[in-house]
């Protein structure tokens, strides 16, 4: 069993480069299919180019559309962040929300606008959820 340390290092380097290459290839293909500005024919042509001549195709794609690739990724990330903040804004009750709501209900009951039964149901609803 003769496998020198340098060969171990070179094997690890080649494995790293292959993984890096596949990550780059799938990023390009993913960007290609997510891009709404390209027509179907252009997507098909780029896909054939990337599959038939992978190294040249990927490098040409990065040269021709690499800047836009980064911009599209940033826009997509911003859109997801905006959706997240929009969705989470409605689910988080405002600070002191339940105590303010209970105070408002007590005030309505004190003025006679709510009966004792309506007050109990509203109070239970506020406290449970």
UniProtKB/TrEMBL annotation:
Regarding the membrane, this protein is recorded as:
Multi-pass membrane protein
Keyword Zinc appears in the UniProt entry: no
Q: What is its subcellular localisation? A: Cell membrane
- The UniProt record lists the SHOCT domain at 100-127
Query: Where is the major localization of this protein?
Result: membrane
- Alphabetically ordered keywords of this record: Cell membrane, Membrane, Transmembrane, Transmembrane helix
Which InterPro entries does the record associate with it?
A: CLS_N, SHOCT
Q: Is Metal-binding tagged as a keyword?
A: no
**Which stretches make up the Cardiolipin synthase N-terminal domain?**
19-65
* Annotated TM spans: 5-24, 44-64
| Name by which UniProt lists this protein | PLD nuclease N-terminal domain-containing protein
- The species this protein belongs to is Actinomadura chokoriensis
